[in-house]
Amino acid sequence: MKRWFLVILFFFLTAILSSCGRIPLEDLAISLILGVDLDEDGNLIISESSPVFNQDAKKKIETYELEAKTIRDSRRNFDALTPGAVTAGKIQVLLIGKRVLEHEDWFYVLDTIYRNPTFSVNSRVIVVDGPVSDVINYEPEDKPQLPLLLKEVIDKNIDRSRTVFSTPQTLHRQMYEKGMTPLISELKKGQDVELVGVSLLDQNGKYVDTLSMQESSLLIILKDKQKEELTFSIPLPSLEDEGGIFNRNELSIDLSRIITKVKTKYHQDKFHFNYKIHMTVNIVEQLFPSDNVKENELEKMIEHELKSRFEGLIKKIQENKIDPIGLGIYARAFQYDQYKKVEEHWGEALAEANIDVSLDIDIKSMGAIN
């Protein structure tokens, strides 16, 4: 009897305490987007976007933007502006303006995010090419609300191997990992919000360059992180273009199965990375007659064109003395003693390294018709 009394008392107290801690949704300002940017004078601008749960409100999203010394300092000011209590535990998207990334010490601005145990470590981190305010104030018509739209755009392109998965957790690891440099998805606001590609940062987190969508896919292949099949549209310069308004030497391919292997060695005071990439290819578009080239010749043409693109990407990486691929992790694993000598300036060491890519293309399908 005493045991049953204690059980009933426990559930009664639990119900009382939980009900006391409840706050109605209309009394909360649940931030779903947090923006960090700099204005033209170098002042830190923090913005946040929250859904409105009041049935009488005409706007379903409220957005605030203000100048602050820190992200935490902005919380006090947001509380003074919003009718509800501001909470950051449900933030879905963290927008960072490219102006912020032009400074080496910008990462410390995010300190409160990592100290706050309620901040979602799975929020999507996105670089904005232009003012963050252009994106956070965007009100898409006939589309999901902006927080959901941005998250869906990023996640869809991650699944299709067009951009990278970047969260506060992965960004923190990349910032402190000496064997690679950070990379973040990048978008811009034109007529609509659109994904641009991937922002490349140096070891100090400073912005150095942007990869296009196709370059981003090539990078993902080198990182061996591709998920679904990739589509590339490539010209074949070795085929004569008959001129006119149509490009008759264009070819579109689906890369349905990709196996990426890399070997690491140290020789003649240099690191050497040898990639062997096998790709199974399906032809999905061909604007030139099939009898113009044999299948084995076509495989060689595709190999040559894709290899040229890989080499262009690697050249860009080495010229910027960065390592978004993470080859420093391979070097540390297989050539530890040599890597430790250059660990503090790995980007410079990688710039001097030999990175060779060899491709093996296997055409699986030429399509339903010839």
TrEMBL record:
<dbReference type="InterPro" id="IPR057336">
    <property type="entry name" value="GerAC_N"/>
</dbReference>
<dbReference type="InterPro" id="IPR008844">
    <property type="entry name" value="Spore_GerAC-like"/>
</dbReference>
<comment type="similarity">
    <text>Belongs to the GerABKC lipoprotein family.</text>
</comment>
<dbReference type="InterPro" id="IPR038501">
    <property type="entry name" value="Spore_GerAC_C_sf"/>
</dbReference>
<dbReference type="InterPro" id="IPR046953">
    <property type="entry name" value="Spore_GerAC-like_C"/>
</dbReference>
<keyword id="KW-0732">Signal</keyword>
<feature type="domain" description="Spore germination protein N-terminal">
    <location>
        <begin position="23"/>
        <end position="188"/>
    </location>
</feature>
<keyword id="KW-0449">Lipoprotein</keyword>
<keyword id="KW-0472">Membrane</keyword>
<keyword id="KW-0309">Germination</keyword>
<feature type="domain" description="Spore germination GerAC-like C-terminal">
    <location>
        <begin position="197"/>
        <end position="367"/>
    </location>
</feature>
<protein>
    <submittedName>
        <fullName>Spore gernimation protein</fullName>
    </submittedName>
</protein>
<dbReference type="Pfam" id="PF05504">
    <property type="entry name" value="Spore_GerAC"/>
</dbReference>
<dbReference type="Pfam" id="PF25198">
    <property type="entry name" value="Spore_GerAC_N"/>
</dbReference>
<keyword id="KW-0564">Palmitate</keyword>
